[in-house]
Design a protein that fits this description.
This protein is mainly α and 435 residues long. The chain contains 13 helices and 8 strands. Helix 1 packs across helix 8 and helix 4 packs across helix 9.
């Protein structure tokens, strides 16, 4: 097997391993997937215990401290990785790719397009890094108080235990940046910033620019390789192995030759293709969230509510079947019929405080929410008293889904920037100054 064949095998293994780790670490649920549970929870615990056994308690404490810093404190590690990938990738493209432009399939103007795309990439990144997601304090409470409580994910009358202010609907305290964020979406390690109401639109623009940049690079590089093959007439060229034996010309042989001759550009193409798939998937996920009128935090919270609601329904039905609960017949009125048949209604009737499912806030990052303990188990033990109460009918639609057009408008024009919110905030500030 020649060096080009080894390179193809290495690339294939890289793609398989990268895809597997992506699925295990991001997509798979550690509560249901044995491999994900092992890698995400059991293996780190076993490793820490092994370090303690081999190196002592002091080294283990230092390891725990470093792990805590990486997982619970804002740090620039992923930003360094981002800069290495982006600046390294563009260096390879400028040095190895654009020297082959113009050619049969790529016009010379793409050299200048490359600089424009590069500047768009960096500017979108710097913008979202520096943009504030919004911070809820006692002084800014009126500015961000623009959503009503759905009484399922968000309940009125709650106080943030960390900062001691009223907890607004759709808000959440972010322990990474230590502030209460309006319309909290998630904390993104790549930009080392929280994504919230004020900077979510900039984050979407950042994803759009990088998705376009990656696919542009993939197509451009493929066309460069195609031009090289056509210029050198590789389809009809004679190839020999390392022993001098002739090889039958095929697309595989041509690709191997191009990889061997332009290995840096081939490696960049692989990296861009894999990253394009990941970033495109992430962008599509956020487009889906926008269409549903949800944030990342609300998406995972809603899924957890649905899961626990299903458990409560099953436990309640079991309690009724065993005679532990007596269901009293109720008189059905026109009002109750109208309420119960409204599929996208917020509650199953207007007298309830919402569906009887309550879950604590969890940390939400690029890889989802933390809904399991360190050992991989979850926190969904059902309270015995909860099984004695009908949990109600869970709506099929989020309370904050106002239709596609309105959902998009709320991303582009956040409510906190609306004239009503600004006027209310200004009046509050004037009132405070006059005291």
């Amino acid at each position: 097997m020649d060096s080009a064949s080894y390179l193809v095998v290495a690339i294939t293994l890289y793609v398989v391993c990268f895809a597997s780790l992506t699925y295990i670490c991001i997509i798979a649920d550690p509560r249901k997937n044995t491999v994900a549970n092992l890698i995400m929870h059991k293996a780190p615990v076993k490793f820490a215990n092994g370090v303690k056994w081999l190196m002592g308690e002091t080294i283990k404490r230092k390891l725990d401290s470093f792990t805590h810093y990486c997982a619970n404190e804002p740090h620039p590690f992923m930003q360094v990785v981002y800069c290495f990938i982006v600046f390294g990738g563009w260096t390879v493209m400028f040095h190895y790719g654009f020297t082959l432009v113009p050619n049969t399939y790529v016009g010379g103007y793409h050299k200048y397009n490359g600089y424009v795309v590069f500047l768009l990439c960096i500017s979108s990144y710097v913008t979202v890094v520096k943009a504030s997601p919004g911070t809820i304090t006692a002084m800014t409470l009126t500015k961000y108080d623009n959503y009503d409580y759905d009484k399922i994910m968000f309940h009125p009358g709650q106080t943030c235990p960390t900062v001691g202010i009223r907890k607004l609907a759709r808000s959440k305290y972010d322990r990474m940046t230590r502030r209460h964020v309006p319309r909290f979406d998630h904390y993104c390690g790549w930009v080392n910033n929280t994504i919230g109401e004020e900077n979510y639109r900039l984050f979407i623009w950042f994803l759009i620019v990088h998705t376009g940049m990656l696919w542009y690079g993939v197509v451009l590089t493929v066309l460069i390789f195609k031009s090289e093959a056509a210029t050198l007439n590789l389809k009809y060229a004679a190839f020999y192995d390392n022993r001098g034996r002739p090889l039958r010309t095929s697309y595989v042989i041509v690709v191997q030759y191009l990889i061997q001759e332009h290995n840096m550009l081939a490696a960049l193409l692989l990296l861009m293709f894999v990253m394009a798939l990941i970033v495109s998937g992430f962008l599509c996920f956020h487009i889906y969230l926008i269409s549903r009128g949800m944030t990342t935090n609300e998406f995972y919270k809603w899924n957890e509510i649905q899961r626990r609601h299903k458990i409560l329904r099953m436990e309640y039905a079991k309690a009724v079947a065993e005679g532990r609960v007596t269901v009293a017949p109720t008189k059905i009125s026109d009002k109750s019929i109208e309420s119960s048949t409204r599929s996208d209604s917020l509650h199953h009737n207007e007298d309830t405080d919402g569906v009887l499912v309550n879950i604590p806030d969890a940390d939400v990052g690029c890889m989802g929410t933390v809904v399991v303990n360190e050992d991989g188990t979850d926190n969904s033990e059902v309270d015995e008293d909860a099984t004695q109460t009908d949990p109600g009918i869970l709506p099929t639609r989020s309370h904050y889904n106002l239709g596609l057009i309105t959902n998009i408008q709320e991303v582009i024009f956040p409510r906190c920037f609306s004239p009503e919110a600004q006027k209310r905030y200004s009046e509050f500030i004037q009132t405070q100054k006059s005291k």
